[in-house]
């Protein structure tokens, strides 16, 4: 019973993007919990610093913007702070909007 109930919970969180391209809201739950519930303020600053230091080497501003949007799917404030660190405009998107930037279409 519990296993069946758990499968229904997971299935409800997996959308058509996952079946076609391997991306779903479920992919962001664990890293979101780590960032929001486990990291303290100092660890969050260090995380942002590390992401910005690595992503600043990216030459294409569109790719930099996508990096900020990806992290914004975890936490909108995180995406915004990373965008500021990279010197690119912060343009938040939802999962569907993010998928569309990579030319990923829904299976429906």
From TrEMBL:
Catalase immune-responsive domain residues: 27-86
Name of the protein in question: Catalase immune-responsive domain-containing protein
Entry-linked Pfam families: Catalase-rel
Protein source organism: Prymnesium polylepis
SUPFAM superfamilies, alphabetized: Heme-dependent catalase-like
Alphabetized GO MF terms: heme binding
């Amino acid at each position: 019973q519990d296993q069946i109930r758990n499968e229904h919970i997971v299935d409800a969180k997996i959308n058509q993007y996952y079946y076609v391209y391997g991306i779903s809201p479920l992919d962001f739950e664990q890293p979101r919990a780590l960032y929001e519930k486990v990291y303290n303020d100092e660890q969050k600053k260090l995380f942002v610093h590390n992401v910005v230091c690595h992503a600043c080497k990216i030459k294409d501003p569109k790719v930099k913007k996508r990096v900020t949007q990806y992290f914004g799917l975890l936490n909108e404030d995180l995406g915004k702070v990373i965008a500021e660190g990279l010197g690119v405009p912060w343009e938040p998107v939802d999962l569907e909007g993010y998928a569309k930037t990579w030319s990923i279409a829904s299976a429906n």
